[in-house]
Design brief:
By secondary structure, the chain is of the alpha/beta class. It has 2 domains: about 180 residues, Rossmann fold (3-Layer(aba) Sandwich); about 80 residues, UDP-galactose 4-epimerase, domain 1, CATH 3.90.25. It contains 9 helices and 14 strands. The strands form 4 sheets. A 7-stranded parallel beta sheet has the order 3-2-1-4-5-6-11, with helices on both faces. Strands 12-9-14 form a 3-stranded mixed beta sheet. Strands 7-10 form a two-stranded parallel sheet. Strand 5, helix 4 and strand 6 form a beta-alpha-beta unit.
């Protein structure tokens, strides 16, 4: 199977490309602007440096040769428009897997499943929802299958740019961590290896309906303070922090992962403590 990882040079893309490459029958094409920064060195992974906002013959040839395209880019309508324009005439591509975000859900005190109405607040959230909708309309018209994976907060590697990255950088560099408000906003954190296990499953899953949406999450929520205190216990060291004025954000977003767990037969292998322990090792190895 030929698989395109569009924007697959981030840490999730690196883990996914490496996992996909273990199947020797796969050919994985990692496409993006910063492919030189990628770590993998496997014979069946090919890195292609392209500006995905621009049409090109090389991108068209890649799309024509692909069975599945996985979209892992930051929100950018030019990329989605270019992708749609490029693959309109392809005959081989059968499925698009789009990595969206669970952050598009509303502030809610209970787990939210895939039928909950989105309520995006930030530009990032609005961008993700807009791209979901564009791809849904396109696949309805073109006959492709669309699989939307709404990821909760992914962590586990030094390339991560979320809260957990800032916590570990503060710990290892002995720098002050700035916490917005009271540090009581709650999010669902999922370890990167669990994420790629689920995405890998969705790539090869024999999808019957034209569109499916899955929450890729643990179903458990932790506050900023919970995360900080857990890292302190694991490292045996206190993190210096300061509290800044609160910023506008949703207080609680926890996904319901029942749909993906029941379909795949896989539960997340990492809880927060186990995941943060492995993350600590990953950061120490890259010091």
């Amino acid at each position: 199977m030929n698989i395109l990882l569009l924007g697959g040079t981030g840490f999730v893309g690196e883990y996914l490309a490496e996992k996909l490459s273990r199947r020797k029958s796969n050919k994985v094409f990692v496409v993006g602007k910063d492919v030189a920064l990628s770590k993998n060195n496997c014979e069946n992974i090919e890195y292609v440096q392209l500006d995905l906002t621009e049409q090109s013959d090389e991108f068209k040839q890649l799309a024509d040769s692909a069975d599945v395209a996985v979209i892992m880019t930051q929100p950018n309508e030019r990329i989605i428009d270019n992708l749609i324009s490029t693959i309109k005439s392809t005959n081989r591509l059968k499925k698009i897997v789009y990595l969206s975000s669970a952050l598009i859900y509303d502030n809610f005190e209970d787990k939210q499943n895939e039928t909950f109405s989105p309520n995006p607040m930030t530009d990032y959230e609005r961008g993700k929802l807009t791209e979901e909708q564009k791809l849904e309309k396109f696949t309805d018209d073109a006959g492709f299958n669309l699989c939307v994976a709404r990821l909760s907060n992914v962590y586990g590697d030094v390339k991560n740019r979320g809260l957990i990255n800032f916590v570990f950088l503060s710990l290892l560099n002995d720098e002050e961590l700035t916490i917005n408000g009271k540090g009581d906003s709650v999010r669902d954190y999922i370890f990167v290896e669990d994420v790629v296990d689920y995405i890998d499953f969705l790539i090869f899953w024999d999808q019957k309906r034209e569109k499916e949406t899955f929450n890729i999450c643990t179903g458990k929520g932790y506050s900023v303070i919970d995360v900080v205190q857990t890292v302190e216990k694991i490292a045996g060291k206190e993190i210096k922090n300061k509290f800044s004025p609160a910023v506008p954000e949703k207080g609680m977003i926890i996904g319901n992962n029942k749909k993906i767990v029941e379909l795949s037969g896989m539960k997340p292998k990492y809880d927060l403590v186990k995941g943060l322990r492995q993350t600590y090792k990953n950061y120490l190895a890259n010091k």
